[in-house]
Each structure stands twice: as C-alpha cells, then as structure tokens.
Amino acid sequence: MARQRSAPPARPRIGLALAGGGPLAAIYEIGALCALEEAIAGLDLTRCDGYIGVSAGGFIAAGLANGLTPRQLCAAFIENSAAAPDNFAPSLMLRPAWEEYGARLRSLPGLIGQALWQTGVQGRPLLAACERLGRALPTGLLSGEALAAQLRRQFSQPGRSDDFRQLKKTLVLVATDLDSGQAVPFGTPGWDHVPISRAVQASAALPGLFAPVEIDGRHYVDGALKKTVHASVLLDRGLDLLICLNPLVPHQTGHDEQARITRLSDGGLPLVMSQTLRALIHSRLELGLKRYALSHPGTDILLFEPDPRDAEMFLANTFSYSRRRHLAEHAYQATRAALLRRRAHLGPQLQRQGLTLDLEVLRDPQRRLLAEPATPAARTDRALQRLHATLDRLEAQRLAA
Fold it and tell me: Mean pLDDT for the chain?
C-alpha cells in the first residue's frame, strides 16, 4: 500500500503489528522477523515506536518491546538453548488447568442435586438437567499461569519491565472481555496497570484450550475473537510505516509440487476446520487493511505472511513444538525469498522511510537462521576424537610415571 511523500522523515515512526495463531504463529513470526531485520538495512525491531500483539503475537511483541532481539527470541523459544538466559521450555504451554478442574469437580454434587430436583420434582425435561450438569465441565484444558510466571521472571531482569508504564515504547496487547465480547487494549491508559505478563496470558487464552484469565474481577480470552491485528490502536498515534505479520492464511491446493494436498476434504475434519479458521481470520484482515488504507493514507503498510500455496506451513500442527526448528528455518527462508521477489515494490516504500533492502544478504545461499544439526556420523567422529585425545593423555601420563 504505497503512499506518496516528498521526503523521508528524519527518523521514521515505525510500528509492528503481530497476529496470533498458537505456537505455530510464534514460530513463524520469529523466523520472519529475523529475516526482516537482517535483510532490511536500518531496521531495528527492538526500537520500533509501537508494538501491538494479539494472542501468540503478544508474546513476541512483549519480548521485542523489552529489548529482546529476534535472534534472542529464536535462541530462547526455538532452540531452547541452555546457554540462553531466557530459555523458554515448551512444557510451560502444556500445564493442565488443575485449579479449574478442582473447582468444577467441587461444584458437581450440587449440580447433580439441582438436576435431580428439576427432573424429579419440577418435571423439567431431561435436556434441561444435562444443561445444568454441563456447568461442571472446565472452561479450559490448560492453564497459562506457568507462562505468565516465566514471563514475569524474564521481564523482571535489569533493563526490562513487566509494567507497561515503565517501557520506553508503546506496547499494546489485545484480549477479549468474555462477559461483554469487547476488545480490551492492555497497555493503553486505563488498562496499563495490568502486568505485561498477565496481559500476554489473557491475550493468548484460546477459548476451550486455555482457561479464561481473571483480571480485576473480569474474565478475558484470546484477543483474536474480535479482529486479527487491531492495528488501528497504533495507527491512530501516528506512524510512517506499519509492518504487519499474519501467520495463518487459507491454503490454495493444486500448487504443491509433491502433491501433498489434492483436496482438503480428503484430510478430514482437522484440515477442513483449519482452512475454515484461516479463511475467517484472513478475510477480516483483508477488510481491516482496506479500512486502514482509507483512514490512514499517510502511513505505508507492509504485510508479510506465508504463501497460500505453502503446504509446509498449512500442514504443520498449530500447537506442535516438535518441528519448531524446521518450521522456523522454513519461515526464515520463505521470508527472505518473498523480500527478494517483492523488491521492486518494497524498495521504494522502504526508501521513503530511510530503509533499504540488502540484496547481498537476500542472495546469500549459505545464510541460515539455525545451525544445521550434527549428523550421526559427525557426532561419532567427535566422540572418537575425544576418545583418542583421552587415550593420548593417559599414555603420556604412563610414560611420565
């Protein structure tokens, strides 16, 4: 969405909007952000004027606003390097909501009594009794408390903050008020007293999977229920450039060279539901971008997302960590390829902001996000080298004795 200006600003006001989509979204966004920062000269994603994140995008946005570079996020979330001070264990996202289970279980005797009274004494239909017992079901299978606690520890380190008001940049994390259905922008005046870690937890509480998060007596769930990116919150503050990342796009079949997908219906309910969710999310995003173009004509808006023909990203399990290294590398290389392919259009837009595409970086065939894992043969060679070195030292000690 190109905008005409007479001269680039002295220091462009840049905003970053990150959509959600579960752990897969975080994996894609980390790989894509690393590619963007390395390939666009002058772009520092830790120095943006504003950040807005929804769901998993809120997790990434909060890290960037606290000074964590995309490469540091990669080391913590993708590589889980023991040497990384912010090492993020995937198991944090898989903690059962034991407190929720216990509360619902304790309510079961009373609900059974009420159901029996309605059917046996009041003569109400059995369906009404089943509806009453449905209140004993937990509101979510997993708890985000461990995630919030981990983020609270990370944001309490020197130079960082778990308080929106102490950040030097604007950070907005969007959640949905479950009792009203309204979007709530944590980090804006009136909502900035909530800890950042708690806001991330609320924004990522996907209904049915994670239990709603209680804040000030209200319950909050995933911010994507209302909009995909909520970018107007940043645009209204005045930006020269807005970079948007959307990890979930509907898949276009018939383009897969290996014929991994011919008809989505052949994949059963999971693929049908995935395509439906992606189509809904993407249609809202397209409408939102059109409105932004009309309401904020002075802002260049750049959208980056997976190629709709990319079966690799579509078939990936949204909540799987097992192949995160492969998917992050795939997102990194796909984003580099997209930048090179779109350079004729992106170049002038970036130049208006004093930014340039580094074609040498984009054309480097050896550039990778992650080091290639050692092959079994390489590991065996290293083990043999250590064994020979140990035997040599033992032999030297024997001769010396």
Answer: 86
